[in-house]
Design goal:
Layout lengths: L7 H9 L9 H18 L3 H5 L5 H9 L6 H10 L5 H13 L18 H9 L2 E6 L10 H12 L4 H14 L10 E7 H5 L5 H14 L5 E6 L13 E5 L8 E5 L4 E2 L4 H17 L6 H11 L1
Parallel strand pairs: 1-2, 2-3
Antiparallel strand pairs: 1-4, 4-5, 5-6
Helix pairs in contact: 1-6, 2-6, 5-6, 8-9, 11-13
């Protein structure tokens, strides 16, 4: 059997190696997963046939989805099975595996990050575009420290002050994606009800809405307000977030947070469905140019 041609694979792998190390292991892990899927497809192997090299179909599925880190032995075994003969391509695959083991900046907070939330944190920090629809509360990336503290205290109940402080620091640290050298473009549709729902008292809400006004001045932030129910729209019942990742081989991430869990729909039609829903919400919300006026009216009503 002839070896799998390198060509574009090698070039794309080289691009993946240039990922910002501050983003942690997520980008190299996802890039590696995408290329392992492509190599298997080019070889014409079923998942069951390829899994023999690893001893487990579940293990192969986890590696190909980027859910788990890929070991050096895994890469070597799959490279041999897929007929990867070019030295540079093998080295690039192995380097991506190595990078997927480096700790993310969030590692010191790992104790307070639920397992179901960890994949989202990693993907959020490398996303080029973050689109979200928020129903009940201002989304995490747009919260002030006071609002975040009040929300976390409400969601997690009374607990040690140190733990609440750590959760607030984690939330604020995630907001660096808005202000880094190459910031993510954040496009939020916020239900008006979330701005009328008191969190932490009048002063906290006043500062939160003023903060949203300040964020509207950022060129990478788009904020739209969806009018209260009765304005002729039927909005989805829950919040949703779509992440566009900065690599052609990586599909959008759909994140649906539940009370104490999350769903990551990953079938193509599911991603298309949520992308369409987000587009519909954007057309039904007030245009971004009206957002500052709406926010000022809400501040005046406090």
């Amino acid at each position: 059997m002839s070896p799998v041609p390198a060509g574009r694979i090698g070039a794309a792998l080289a691009a993946g190696l240039g990922a910002d190390e501050s983003a942690g292991p997520t980008m190299p892990r996802l890039v590696l997963a995408a290329h392992l899927r492509r190599l298997r497809a080019r070889r014409g192997l079923s998942a069951r046939a390829a899994a023999r090299a690893l001893g487990s179909e579940d293990r192969l599925a986890a590696l190909e989805s980027g859910v788990t880190r890929c070991g050096i032995d895994d890469v070597l075994a799959l490279s041999e099975l897929y007929g990867v003969r070019e030295h540079a391509t093998r080295v690039a695959l192995l380097e991506l595996a190595r990078q997927s083991h480096r700790p993310g900046w969030w590692q010191p907070y790992r104790r307070i990050i639920p397992d179901w939330f960890l994949p989202y944190v990693g993907a959020e920090q490398i996303a080029a575009v973050i689109r979200c629809y928020a129903v009940r509360y201002v989304p995490d990336l747009l919260q002030t420290a006071e609002y975040a503290r009040a929300r976390l205290a409400s969601a997690w109940g009374a607990g040690p002050v140190e733990e609440v402080d750590a959760r607030v620091r984690l939330r604020l640290r995630r907001q660096d994606v808005l202000h880094r050298a190459s910031p993510a473009c954040v496009w939020t549709v916020l239900d008006e009800a979330a701005l009328r729902r008191p969190v932490g008292g009048r002063a906290t809400m006043f500062r939160q809405i003023e903060h949203l006004l300040e964020l509207c001045d950022l060129p990478n932030v788009t904020l739209q307000i969806l009018p209260l129910a009765g304005a002729g729209h039927a909005a989805p019942a829950g919040a949703m977030t779509l992440l566009r990742l900065p690599h052609d081989d990586l599909a959008d991430v759909v994140y649906l947070e539940q009370l104490d869990n999350a769903i990551y729909p990953d079938l193509p039609w599911e991603r298309d469905h949520h992308r369409h829903a987000m587009n519909v919400l954007a057309t039904r919300a007030s245009p971004p140019a009206r957002t500052p006026l709406i926010l000022k009216e809400l501040v005046s009503a406090l």
